[in-house]
Every structure is written in structure tokens, then in C-alpha cells.
Specification:
About 20% of the residues lie in helices and about 25% in strands. It has 7 helices and 13 strands. The protein has helices spanning about 45-50, 70-75, 75-85, 95-100, 110, 120-130, 210-220, and strands spanning about 5-10, 15-20, 25-30, 30-35, 60-65, 85-90, 140-145, 150, 155-160, 170-175, 180-185, 225-230, 235. With about 240 residues, it is of the alpha/beta class. The relative contact order is 0.17. It is globular. The strands form 2 sheets. The chain has a 7-stranded mixed beta sheet, with helices on one face. It has a 6-stranded mixed beta sheet with strand order 8-9-10-11-12-13, with no helix packed on it. It has a single domain, classed as Ribonuclease Z/Hydroxyacylglutathione hydrolase-like (Metallo-beta-lactamase, Chain A, 4-Layer Sandwich), CATH 3.60.15.10. The protein starts with 5 loop residues before the first strand and ends with a strand.
Length: about 240
Amino acid sequence: MRELRSLTAVAPGILFVEGPASNWTVFHGRSHVELVDCGYPADRPLVEESIRSTGLDASALRRIIVTHGHSDHLGAARDFSEGSGVEVLAAESELPNVRREITEQVTVADLLPVALRRGTIPWAVAAIRAGGLGDVGVPSAQAIVGEAIELSTGHRLEVVPTPGHTTGHACFFEPDAEVLITGDALVTGHALLADAGELQRLPTFFHHDAAGAEASARRLSLCDARWVLPGHGPALRL
């Protein structure tokens, strides 16, 4: 049974959700909900559960903003879009991944050299069972316009381009609460990492452009944030 690992209210109207294997953030206010990322496809019931914990329900969901177009972050975004008219946004250079015109995602061949490493096979099996190989592309996804997004909840997200993990990977900074949402540019844990609870990068084979991912991670480490909300691992209060 898939269960939420934790719910953390990091600031008014900002709820960080640590899912079974990947995370998302719920912004809520003014009777509206907006998400950054959406977990795996199998996490849809958990996404809806996390929304209900704010006192609203999935009918209040207006928009899903994705850091990048991997299956464990797109999740059920296509279902929400096609079934309820929820808008899906991503950086313009990331749209080919989100729409599944291209797929910059780890493959079985990438995993073969590390297949015997502790945790690799269980992680891969769990990812597949969670819908990691499913058709999660969102053909209707639109590009983020400008350097910031005004949310219907009253929050504001500044767009921080962080190419490397994918071509158009982006992070988001909420300035009032000093919250940095890092997607997979920086994480605090993962099944294939030995340590948890500190800022680190995913193993190199996960990145489309490893050198670019390293450069983006270095830039992010200089950001003045009170909270870091990663795509994998627990929230980190600085």
C-alpha cells in the first residue's frame, strides 16, 4: 500500500508532501490549490489526500507546475488536465519532455552498470509498479511565461532555470516564505543514495547533462532560502 511519508506546513498556504518515492508541494489559499510536481502516476490518490488535508479537495486544483518531465514528477498531471481541465505548465525548453515528444529519462541500459549496487533493483521495480514506464505525457502542457508565476492562491513563484538533469529543468523560489523548490537539481535523499537529510545530487546516470546538472546545483547552493523542498528526500530547514 502506498502511503505518504510526511506532510510539512512550511509557511502559510505552503504544504510540502513527501510521497512514497518522490515529492510535491501544495499551494493553497483563496479556495484554490496549485501544485508543483505531482509524484508518480500511482500517487494520484495520495495527491488528492494531501489536498484534502488543507481543507479543500481536488475540485479546487487549478494548475500543476512541473519542475521537469520525468514520470515521477508528472504523475497524474495528464489525468487532471484531461479530466478536470487543470492547466499544466513547464519551462518552454522542457515542454518536449513534458509532452513526450522526447524522453530524457534514465533507461534500463543506464541502470545495467549499477544493477548490482544495493537498492537498484528494488528501486527500479517499485518505479515500474508506480507507473514509471506509463504514458504520462501532457500534450496540452503550456510554457511558463516570464520570470515569475502569480498563483491563484496568492503566492508568487520566481522561476530559476536549472538545466542539466533535463534540458529545461527549473526550480521555483517563493520569496515571502524564502522557500526553494529544487525538483531533482538538488535532493536530500533517494533510494540509491547512502545518506539522507542533507543537500546532494542524484547519481550521475540520472542526469541528461551531468556537467550542466553539477553547475546548476552549485548555483542553487548559493540561494538564500529558509526552506529547501526537494524532489526526493525530506524537507530541509536552513
